[in-house]
Amino acid sequence: MALVRPSRRTLVTSFATALAGTAAAPATARAAAAPAPARRGPAPLRRAHAHNDYEHPRPLLDALDHRFTSVEADIWLVDGQLLVGHDAEDLTPERTLETLYFDPLMRRVRAHHGAVYPGHHRPVQLLVDLKNTGEASYLELHRRLRRYRRMMSVAVDGRVRPGAVTAVISGDRAARGPLEAQRLRYAFYDGRLDDLGGGSPASFAPLISGNWTQSFGWRGEGPMPAAERGRLHEIVTAAHGEGRRVRFWATPDTPGPARDAVWSELLTAGADHINTDDLAGLEAFLDRHGGQRR
């Protein structure tokens, strides 16, 4: 998903570069991915979402170091592999969804007795953005999720059993059909604003995401217009009334007063996830502004 931001980060491909094929990771890579000792630290930031997380030097791990509870990975189905990257030219065979996300998450969950963060059992969200072949990509992802089912949130006949990690499927809308047809799912659907008040329950689409620039003209300069503030609160209230969470992408992400103003409005309205590429910036903002309040 496109995001307004100062510049694209350069993809860093040093993580797990020796993992191509079936080769084992070197000791240094394994050490980098090892979970921290299982002690309760500062509370995770339940509103913090790492947009295009894989562009950071250490995908997933940098976000977790900054206490984020939601991370986003774009994936492409290429020759049967789920490769991570924003564009097709970014893809390399060692950067798979398993090596960058599922395997390190599983190690942490095992080390921390069933939780990504020790002592904190609220699920961490993995937002998986399908970039191509939506139906085929999702079905391949579902097949691979079975290996990690012990840590995943699961839906069976519309009843949800929370796990340490909740996978939510975004991107190519062709994934919706196979998701809806499944009796047993290890993933959920990322709805859109027009899903509010629709027929799909929160057990299927627990997240509602929208493009900020398509709903609001305000970009953080001057006061937020009252009508737009009212619409923001209406969206959040409607979603929460249906048991869903709310996220907007394409919010301003250049450090400064405008970004802080938009983030403050999102926080005040009760938006569940604040989107950013600036991990340290959002962590500091939420710590300053009581980001844990509802």
Provide the CATH architecture of the domain at 43-190 and 258-288.
Alpha-Beta Barrel
Total helical segments: 9
Largest sheet: 8 strands, parallel, barrel
DSSP helix fraction: 25-40%
CATH fold description of the domain at 43-190 and 258-288: TIM Barrel
Radius of gyration: 18 Å
Separation of the first and last Cα atoms:
26 Å
Major beta sheet, strand line-up? 1-2-4-7-9-10-11-12
What is the number of E strands? 12
Q: What's the CATH H-level superfamily name of the domain at 43-190 and 258-288?
A: Phosphatidylinositol (PI) phosphodiesterase
Instruction: Tell me, briefly, the overall form.
Output: globular
Poorly predicted ranges: 1-33
Q: Identify the quaternary structure here.
A: single chain
Helix and strand composition category = alpha/beta
| Overall average pLDDT | 88
Helix-strand pattern: HEHEEHEHEEEHEEEHHEHEH
Organism: Streptomyces xinghaiensis
Keywords: Signal
GO molecular function: phosphoric diester hydrolase activity
GO biological process, one term: lipid metabolic process
